[in-house]
Structure formats: structure tokens, C-alpha cells
Amino acid sequence: MDFTFTDEQETVAKVARQLFEHRATPEHLTELEADEVRYDAALWSELAAADLLGIALPESVGGTGGGFLELGVLLSEVGYSVAPVPVYATLVLGADAIARHGDSDLQKRYLPGVVDGGTLLTAALAEPGSSDPTAPRTTARPDGDVWRLTGTKELVPAAQLAAAIVVSARTKDGPGLFVVETGDGVRVMPATTTNGEPFADVELTDAVGRRLSENAEGDIGTGIVEALYTRALVGLCAMQIGVTERALKLAASYTSEREQFGRPIGSFQAVQQRLADAFIDTEAIRWTTWHAAWLIAEGRPAEREAAIAKFWAAEAGARVTASAQQVHGGMGIDVTYPLSRYFLWAKQIELALGSASQQLARLGRTYAEGLTP
């Protein structure tokens, strides 16, 4: 296990940060947030021009042949700048699943468009009234060469922007994944969310879907839906690394400049202790996430490690951003101040696809199964 980034991975981080710092300024984000959808199409095109949208896709579809670690590095930079682009939805939830499980026709249909920035994708895992994204209630039945899907999905990232959605559904043989194009039989209803990112609820009524296979390396024994859920969790954690890192940086900068009683408030012991705890929490998120991401990149089981990482991303992420907010005093709750976005993003990530307590419950069931004679 070696968490040292390669030169190529460092380059991904450097190029992404330069693009995001240039485009995703606080002023520009405020302008975007006044629009109907928080999405910067010009920035998305720049990511494509910089060859960042194909970093984890095979060369056969125009990608650069990288893997999940490269994708995690990019997601961390998305979180660091709270960038208004659907990298998580398109690359982790949609393109990665199609690249790993789709046949050549599906790959050629969608992935070149992802690489050049012309196609947005996502995946629908969460369902109303269900706390287990790996046990879908949405149904899929065969209909000739295609499948017909019926059910409701909630809080689907960037669904109102996506050309197609990877949908989890149950068949008589068990859970599966299906690619459904937005259109007939698919009703997309934009939802209001904590951090203002584009999400939508999706209703499927006999929607046409094409099934993805379960033969990807590393999914043996876990199932295709569980594998996507694991990768989705780690993708969220990678973004949380960037969110907490930037929140901590804003707090450090503010407390070193803001003076009280003739000296910076960062010199007060209570503030130092609070930020030291936040630093330790940020490091815990970082290392549990990269451990899980490394396992995924190596094609090894990572379900337990993903749950551990998501627990830290949820529990510690909330603590870090709350501490950053509190050391800012009244400035910390000013919605026009950049820190507010990081607090809201951390809260959104905390609850997405299972809170800290839900991850503990999953871990508890895993250990119980392991102890069964």
C-alpha cells in the first residue's frame, strides 16, 4: 500500500485546481447560484479540453486509461473549489459503470461523448423510504432485446442535465444495473437540496433500459449494484477531502488575521485546540478514503473500507466545517462569505447514500456475518 501520488496524478490535481481557481471564483459561483441550475457549461468544456473527463476511461473510447485513484484526485479538487460541474455524477456514477459493465455498443454510444464533454451521465441508486441503496425496489422486466423499468428514484445527482441514467433495479434473478435514456417513460423532477447542486427525483414508467453485465473484475461475490454503491461512497469521500481541506484553510487564514485583545485569535489556546482537532479529522477522512480508493484501483474488495471512509467523511466532515464556521464567529454564518458553501457541501455529503449511523449499522452487520459459525 503506497498513497504517494504518481507524477500523472499530481498533474491531474494541478491542472484541475488551476481551472477551478480560474473559473469557480466566489463571484462567479454567486452568479451561477442565481440561475435555475448550478452548472457551468464553459468550465465543463474546459475540463474536456484539458483531457480530464477521460482520465479514468479506456483509450478505446478516447480516454487516457487511468483508474479510480486518478478519478479520486479529480473529485478532491472538485470539493476543494466546490466546483459547479457534475464530475461525480458523470464520471463516477455513469461513465465508470458503463466502461466497466457495458458492452462495446453501449460504450461507443456514451463514452466518447463523455470524453469530449458533450454527454452528461448519472446513476440512480437511492429510493424513497429505503435506507439500503443496494436493495432496489424499482423493478425491471425483460421485453425482447430491452428491459422495462418501473419505480421511483430520489435525489439523483444532475439528473436534469443527464442524457442517460444508470438505474439500479431488481429482476427475478436479483438486483441489476440498466442504462435508461431520459425521455419517454422517464419523468425528471428537480429537487431542492442543501448545497444547491442539481439533483432530481426520477419516476420510471415502463422506461426502456439496457442491462449492464456483472463480469467486471473486482465485482465477483459482491454484485454489480453493491460494486457501484461502494465506488459511489468513496467518490463522495474524495470530494469531502477537498471540502474539509479548504474549510480548514479558510479558518487558519481568518484566525491568523483576525485580532482580539491585541493579538490574532489563532494564538488563543481554545482556537488552536479546535483547529488541531479539525486537522486530525481531515487527515482521518483523507487516509481512510485513499485506503478504500487504493483497494478499488487494485481490484480488491473494498465494501467495508468504503463504509469506514464514509463514516469519517460524514461524522468528521461535519465537525471540521462546524469548527471552521465557529472560529469565524458571526462571519461564519454569513451566506455571502465563501465558507458557507463548504459547510453546506459537507452536510450534503454527510447524508448522501447513508449517514454515519447507517454506515456503522452496515459495518455491524458485516462483523456479525463474519462471526456466524
UniProtKB/TrEMBL annotation:
Residues 234-365 form the Acyl-CoA dehydrogenase/oxidase C-terminal domain. Its cofactor is FAD. Residues 125-144 are annotated as: Disordered. Residues 6-117 form the Acyl-CoA dehydrogenase/oxidase N-terminal domain. The lineage of its organism: Bacteria, Bacillati, Actinomycetota, Actinomycetes, Mycobacteriales. The keyword Cytoplasm does not apply. This is Acyl-CoA dehydrogenase. Belongs to the acyl-CoA dehydrogenase family. Keywords: FAD, Flavoprotein, Oxidoreductase. GO terms for molecular function: acyl-CoA dehydrogenase activity; flavin adenine dinucleotide binding. Residues 124-202 form the Acyl-CoA oxidase/dehydrogenase middle domain. CDD domains: ACAD. Coiled coil: none annotated. Pfam families: Acyl-CoA_dh_1, Acyl-CoA_dh_M, Acyl-CoA_dh_N. The keyword Oxidoreductase applies. InterPro entries: Acyl-CoA_Oxase/DH_mid-dom (IPR006091), Acyl-CoA_Oxase/DH_mid-dom_sf (IPR046373), AcylCo_DH-like_C (IPR036250), AcylCo_DH/oxidase_C (IPR009075), AcylCoA_DH/ox_N (IPR013786), AcylCoA_DH/ox_N_sf (IPR037069), AcylCoA_DH/oxidase_NM_dom_sf (IPR009100). It comes from the Bacteria.
